């Protein structure tokens, strides 16, 4: 919160003739809290006006219209006097104690004069000095006039905003803000108007641009059209000249060819005969080579199984050699171990014998003598002798029992060792048996699998042999059929040329059949002559209907025509079956006799056309037949052996619907073999339409059309096209079937490979059976040996048990005897033992007896070990190791010899196989070479035949072609002349090659074709020319239609330039307006931001303090917390343009609007707001005029206490907890409960004698309670 670091105060006030104060009066001094009191009308408020006046407040706020109204006047007459003056001087005491005088004088002229101390200053300097002391004149942060409290309490939100603007200083920016806001709106409006003008001009320019582009496009299109036509005509002329040159060249060539044909024919026939002889010689060589190859292949196939068997045998022997070597190494290792074990046993026996001899030597040396006196020793031996005599019988019995016990213990140990060895051997045999059984199981599983595989391979071999036999027969059958079809194709001239137009027509008809239901096809596809000789006759009879398309009804025909037009396809004639009208057949024409027949009767029309194939099935006589339709649908069945079947014939089923179309095309036309018969039929008696097989047509009217053209002959050959296509399809089908069958050689190799695998499996099974038998024999011997061991164990176990019982019983008897002997000896040695100081004589003999016992035990142990080693040595000597090694070495040698024999045999077979393979490959190369030579001969023969056939027909053809080409040259010349006339009419100048000798005649012009595009200069096929012609026509039509659609404004070019200049000017104007708008907007935003910052700084500060101040003003003993007050902005973005909501809630009161509070509550709330405003920018003093008028005594005391807390008791010298300093308070009040809290009183009273106001000063600090 802002505060003054060292606030000063008003020390005194000097007035002269100001309002009700007459003459020069000094009021003061003023203390920190001074109360101005006096009766109503005494001049208390005038004193406050004097302070306000000297601090620069405007006259209007001092209850005066003008400055002269503030000068004292007794009456109206005095008020009218001139030269009246008045002044107010405020003596301000600074924090350091120095004084500063502020004087404002009302001059005689009615103006203001400002002085600081004695210096005259202007208002700005005066105001600046006040501002430096924290006194803001405009904001009036130092005084509250009478009625201001009620005014603030009744202010609406908008008025509160105005008040806060005054306090914050943002009001100073209000005028600038509004001015800039208005300028901004005008600038935006101006910018918008210019932008609208710009849009209008741009729109007009775009419109004119379109018209300009349309005009330019119109001129460009005209130029393009003229250029395109020029290019088109030039290209047409180029093609015409090329065609003329080509036709002329062909014409000359054909004329030369006609002269050479006869000579060539004889040459062709002679060459063909010569090549036939050469081919026969090659075929003979091929047959011989193939015979040799067959023999070698047979031998090679025969050797393959043998080679596989040898490989299998080698593999088996190698496996056996490997296992035998492994076993031999194992046996040799066992022999070495056996030898080492014998040496170790012999060394052990020698060591044990030496130890036993040392032990016996030690026992012979005896024990040490008793450590007794001679008399005691004599007594000892005497007593011992007596004891021996008395226990002699018992000792003899014990000795017998000890010997028996020792013998039985040794026997028991031997039996137990034998039992352990037998048990170990039994476990070893069981392990060997488990291994053999596992091996046997593996052999059985492998054998079963191999047997199953062998059965499958044998079955596969049988099926393969059957399949190969069938494939061979099929292979030969298909080869013969392909040969027959190739002969038929050669006869039918299968290399016939189909022109481009026919191909397009066929393709179009196929598309129509696919798109529209009810399209049957072309007449040439649906029917054909029954014999080849009628081809030309049927062609002439049908005429234009030969290529007609048969459809179901008129609607289908219309749809087809529409489609042809859309796709720009050649036109077609359609025959709708449902609506076409035909004349019935005249039956008597079928019985005219001679060679005459109805054309209708020599035409066949199959539905469907089926190809018959038959094969023998399962070797029986029944024939299985298969029909394959041209559309790929198949049928099958069986025929009896006597059924008449022909391979490859067409089976016809007649479609009655198609008869109508054929009858429409040919009607009752007759066909006969020669012209004389035709004349008789056509012109004698009743006349008929007749055609001969040569193609001569005689009509009823008597006209006769004779001779044929190349085109008619070519059309007649179309009847064979379908047959040729069928034969080609059959040939492709047979070739694909032949390819699917595969190579005979590969079949033989697969068969040989399978036979070899079968042989190998049989060998493996045989060896597995042998090994199985060997394992079963070994298992039997192991079983017998196990049985013997178990019998031995069964015999030994009872003996061991019996010996154990005897030994246990004897041990009891020995212990009893020993006990009796010990009792007798103890009794006899009792007195002697006492004399020598031992409890028992046996204690005396303990060491010697113990040593003897240990020696005996050691001797017994050594003896046992020695016996065991001798037994093991004897067993090892008896083991036969060498015989098994020799046996294995012999077996290994035998196997290696067998392997060498097999390897030798295999090498021989391989050598023979490689030799045979090389021979076969050599023969193959020879056959290939002979075949290639034969094929070359065959090709040459066919070529000679073909050339001879061509030569026989070429003479007549050449004559027709020569005539045709001359006609074509004339037609091309006419067409060229037409193009030149068009160029003259359309004013198109074609480029010419300049020639000084040229004449004016158009026929002598030579055109410059180099100006054509390179792609157009290329020579093209007719189909490509048609496409290019269509493209030219399409482009020309498109340009013409586009030119016709355009309606250009030819003035648009100039108008467009004018609009461009206007657009440029308005764009510059718009940019200037935009810059001006941005400048004003930036200034406006800066002022707005500054105004916002000033306003929000004041608001935030006041808002943060108002609640604390209100709580201080409303706090009491019963309500220690006080009330609540806060400020809310109606709009936080532009707070200075909207209201501020002030809310105050007194203690125990709920939320209410300010208007619903009582007068006192409103006053307290207003005071809280005033003190908060003062705390924002505090002045060093605060002057209040009767702010307690509407307060009760309690609230008056609270307000007075608050003011005192801010002014007295050193409050001005220090900051409170909120960081705010105190201030000097000058209060006008009429209530003693208020002014009794002041430090000094200034009494104002009315001097009736002088008719003016006077003042008295009273210091209350002297009477203040401490």
How would you summarize this macromolecular structure in one to three sentences?
The protein has 27 helices and 28 strands. The protein has 1266 residues and is an alpha+beta fold.
Description of the structure:
By secondary structure, the protein is an alpha+beta fold. The strands form 7 sheets. It has a 6-stranded antiparallel sheet. Strands 8-25-26-3-27-28 form a 6-stranded mixed sheet, sandwiched between helices. A 5-stranded mixed sheet has the order 13-19-20-21-22, with helices on both faces. It is flat. Residues 1-6, 493-498, 607-654 and 996-1003 have low confidence and may be disordered.
Task: Provide tags for this entry.
six-stranded antiparallel β-sheet; flat; single chain; 1266 residues; six-stranded mixed β-sheet; alpha+beta
The number of distinct helices, counting runs of at least 4 residues, comes to 27
How far apart the termini lie comes to 32 Å
Strand order of the largest sheet: 2-1-4-5-6-7
Number of strands: 28
Share of residues in strands = 5-15%
Portion of residues in helices? 55-70%
